[in-house]
User: Fold this.
Amino acid sequence: MSWLLISFAVLLAACDEHNWNNPYSAIDTGKNILYSVFTERPKHLDPVQSYSSNEIQFTAQIYEPPLQYHYLKRPFALIPLTAKEIPVVRHFDIEGHQLQNDAPATDVAYSIYEISIKPGIFFQPHPALAKDEQGDWLYHNLGDQELASIFKLSDFSRTGTRELTAEDYIYQIKRLAHPRLHSPIYGLMADYIIGLKDYVDVLKQVNPERSEGGTYLDLRNYPLEGVQVIDRYTYRIKIKGNYPQFIYWLAMPFFAPVPWEADAFYSQKELIQKNITLDWYPIGTGPYMLTENNPNLRMVLERNPNFHGEYYPTEGMPEDQENGLLMDAGRELPFIDKVIFTREKESIPRWNKFLQGYYDASGIGSDSFDQAVQLVGHGEATVTEEMAAQGIRLETTVAVSTYYMGFNMLDPVVGGSNEQQRESARKLRQAISIAVDYEEFISIFANGRGLPAQSPIAPGIAGYREGKEGVNPVVYDWINNRPQRKSIQVAKALLAEAGYPDGIDQKTGAPLILYFDVTARTAEDRSKLDWMRKQFQKLNIQLVVRSTDYNRFQDKIRKGNAQIFEWGWNADYPDPENFLFLLYGPQRKVGNNGENAANYDNTEYNQLFEQMKNIEDGPKRQQIIDRMVEILQHDAPWLWGYHPKDYGLYHAWYQNVKPNRISNNNLKYFRIDANLRDQKRREWNEPVLWPIAVMLAMLIISFIPAAMAFRRRESSTAVNNIPSS
Assistant:
């Protein structure tokens, strides 16, 4: 029996060193690592194509556009990142004469942004930049022998770097028009950056198969009128007319630098066949670089050893000092060495691992809301006593976001292909807008963390209307100084006018069936879909749910194969244009690859949008926005859904957190106390060993009768075998 006791002792010793349920390697204990999660695998990590929130959590840490947002200040304020200073726009008339800054937008023929970047910024180590002793590129023309042992980027034995230059920014702007890349903002930028619209045709006429490297199209050989290198560190962007919002785009990865060497390296057919591409392995100058990309399991960001000097802000809002957000003022960034993202599709294991200390932060699902949050005072939210005892704190913010259900306006049933069908479809959409009770949805599935939307524009953005002025009159009545959703009878009357009395198609006599495309995965998602079916059943409409993963969902939307779909939008920049352009006709997904997923196209709305986008905030702009919103409310291309309130839980060892969805390059500001985390993990995950001890004792006891019987048998055998004298 001694071996059982020895094994038990060994288990006890091992437990003291590493928690039995710890999902991470023991060698990472005590290290400066942030542990996070992701649920959907990113589709694009190339900055010219990436435009989803599940992608920018990675790309924003790697790529560096010239500008960024101040981490602490509110309202959001732009500050330099790689730029020396915020560029001052200069306006010119049609004859090339410079105008005053307050010149009317109608007088401005073009505007120039001149951007000077800081010297001494270097790209992360990367094989695309590796050279041999003679100064020749090591990996730009790979042969079969060299490729035989290459399966991922880290298989290359050597890396190199070089200094960031103005040309790298211009190269990326040209890539917006690359015919093989299909940038989601090409259509929008082609309306502004001079020459970009025609540039795509120039590139289409080039046969990249003739160039060295097989598929490489060297954009340096093809000038673009709207961009110009002034010197090694300075470049200009020339845009049509006056577009005040353009400055915000300079804080987005679309305008981050990409070196031509990386484009040449990744254009080799053999590497593309092995999925070694810029879409899989980014290259940037930011604080982190992607060192592991296994999007079905985990993704890892590690500190960029070539990162240039940047420092934590020394000022913020008045409450930031009190909240401990200035304790690291002036310290060099980043604070964290490595970030490990683990893919977790289900909410329950994600939540349990957070409570065990294996994830440093967590969102709050509806099934865990009551366990985590309690309301005190005037509806103010705080953590429960159980959470507070673990040192967990709650951070809240009103998200500059909107969640909505969109109708594909190219679909003959919900969109219509002729005037009669369009009128019928509009009334159908209005009826559904009334029937789907988002107040109830917010109460059940968001625990009250949201505000029913009346239009695309989120709270906190210029143009957003509160109170009676902002209410959608198609869906709500204003009663007793508050909005009240219209009755289901009103919705049924609209449905009958649409040609579907009681949900029956008058022309065919068949029940009306509609199709809903979603990316549902969890049990909570299934509950939401059951609820949504019941909302349509109020009108006797059958709702068929078609669920898929996010990448396939994106493909369906891009091709216009969805009828009704669920999506959301996080603001890229704090301006109403960033929401209203989601329904601008030339931004249609189908044909234009824009961000108008509903493929909505209204002539008056489009004309008003073109006026609104070039005007500074003020009464005139507000008047135009009000009319645009009125058109949208009448046409109902979306069920406006709701604007969420973000609730996040953070362990005591996770510091410098100030949530927002505008600034995405925030990992460099966070700080982790790894020693405190290890201490708490040991406390919270101490194994309960007494059941094992009891089982071991019972096992030993159960062996005793067998052992005694065996000994008696052996003794008896020995007696019987004694030789006779």
